[in-house]
Amino acid sequence: MEYEAVIGLETHVQLKTKSKMWCGCANEFGAAPNSNVCPVCLGLPGVLPVANEAGLRQTALAGLLLNCEVSRYAKFDRKNYFYPDAPKNYQITQFDKPSTQRGFVDFEFQGGMARVCITRAHLEEDVGKNIHFDRQSGVDFNRAGVPLLEIVSEPDITSPDMAYEYLNALKDILVYGGISDCDMEKGMVRCDVNVSVRPKGAKEMGAKIEIKNMNSFSGARRALEYEIPRQIEAVKKGEKLRQETRRWDDAAGITEVMRTKEQAHDYRYFPEPDLMPFTPDDAWIAAVQKCVVELPLARKQRFMRDYQLPAPDAQTFVWDVPLGGYFETVVKGAKNPKGAANWVINNLRAKLTETQTTLADLKFKPEALNELVGLVDSGKISSKIAQEVFTEMFASGDAPAAIVEKKGLAQVSDTGAIEKFCDEAIAANPKSAADFKAGNANALNFLKGQVMKASKGKANPALVGEILERKIKA
Ligand code: ADP
Ligand code: MG
Ligand code: ZN
Questions:
Q1: Nearest Cα residue to atom 15 of ligand 1
Q2: Which atom of ligand 1 is closest in space to residue 10's alpha carbon?
Q3: What is the arithmetic mean of pLDDT over 360-377?
Q4: d(Cα 15, Cα 180) in Å, to the nearest integer?
Q5: Which of 194, 204, 245 has the most ligand 1 atoms within 8 A of CB, as the residue to mutate?
Q6: Statement: residue 461 has pLDDT above 90
Q7: Model pTM?
């Protein structure tokens, strides 16, 4: 019998706010241990949390970007458990009334499109961090109380690769929306991977195995690549899988049992008595709506459709938003958008890196790039000369046509001048001419090169080829 995998992900993302969720401490990575703490985030008795509006706003915005409904009535709940990095002995989260739910993420996958539905995205708080030394352990509470968005997917994912692409798409969206920096190195994204197997085509899902706390997307993919065959093999042997939580051992490349269902936590959720339910009005939601940005995939598709760019070019403008914005200014007056894109991606980008400058420092006007493309397209200058003109216009800000004029770089299409260079090249290289005449096509390229050199790159290459051929074959 054939089996298939069923996968659902719970992704935790740290929100990009200035301060923590319930107090004014800085939400900042890398500070000295326990320097960004106060009685509220240390969970001292008698203190009261105050919700950070930026956290609420970003949660709602994330919901909109994930095509979710934003709730008019969200509330907070206490999830009770004891763990040394959770000083209050409970975590504030949203249990039955999350800020946002029922959405989806569309992304490119295996040459087509895939969709993963989002069950909910709710707001909670991060915990501190345990650090283990040789002989003791310490807790750093700087992270305690940092706003955390938990995005729960439907079990729509069918393979490790699809899980990986979904996570990347999710990350791109959240970075685009300014919701999180999603810096994996800084632990800003972690996910729990839920996976089961079932006979192919079966309706009912198998027992859910949860692999906790993956801190890289490739780790999540590898864990699934291990876990799915493990489950299939077990089922084929007649074992009955039971719901359990496992841990991924990255070094060994295996998962191992952490706890079974019988040992599962009972979190005793109850409404957080110190926070009012959150009931945003129309004006508040409309203000969040204004922050909705074009999603990365929509941007890519738009660049491909409106400017007829190939996918890799469009993707470059998705990853480099300012460069894409600049290209859009250029393309407004472009006859040849692809030509303009080539200059922006290949030449301009390299020049900016080389000179450590930014688009704001550019001396030439955006129209100048179109002018340059036009000069090449009309045969006025060769693409090789165009490089020289570009370097000059980047340095001085002068218009390309003016540079061509000033430096006498215009391509020579004057047949008389080219004929003379051709005669000289044939006279100086009689063997090449004879070879070409005898059928060796490469010999012509050599002669062509000689003529181009003699003309300092200014001869029209197509014309040079024609003239040489005519002269030799005559
Ligand atoms: P819990 O209440 O234990 O957190 P949920 O039903 O809320 O479980 O689901 C948590 C995550 O697990 C979701 O992403 C969901 O899509 C996924 N999931 C649920 N059941 C299964 C299953 N049988 N196989 C794989 N994933 C599942
Ligand atoms: Mg869960
Ligand atoms: Zn604090």
A1: 8
A2: 14
A3: 93
A4: 5
A5: 194
A6: no
A7: 0.85
DSSP-assigned beta bridge partners for residue 124: 148
Predicted pLDDT at 262:
78
270-271 vs 100-109, strand pairing mode: unpaired
C-alpha of residue 190 to centroid of ligand 1, in Å: 16
Residue nearest to atom 7 of ligand 1 (CA): 152
Give 151-183 pLDDT, tens digit per residue: 999 999 999 999 999 999 999 999 999 999 999
Nearest alpha-carbon partner for 64 in 265, 294, 407: 294
Domains and CATH numbers, the chain: 3-289 (no CATH), 296-407 (no CATH), 415-473 (1.10.10.410)
Task: Give me the pLDDT at residue 27, please.
Answer: 98
DSSP structural state of residue 278: B
Question: When comparing pLDDT for 401 and 417, which is higher?
Answer: 401
Output the DSSP codes for 335-398: S-HHHHHHIIIIIIHHHHHHHT--GGG--S-HHHHHHHHHHHHTTSS-HHHHHHHHHHHHHH--
For residue 205, which atom of ligand 1 is closest to its CA?
23
Q: Is the CB of 196 under 6 A from ligand 1?
A: yes
Handedness of CA 423, 427, 431, 432 (dihedral sign): negative
Quick check: helix, strand or coil at residue 139? strand
Q: Is the CB of 108 under 6 A from ligand 1?
A: no
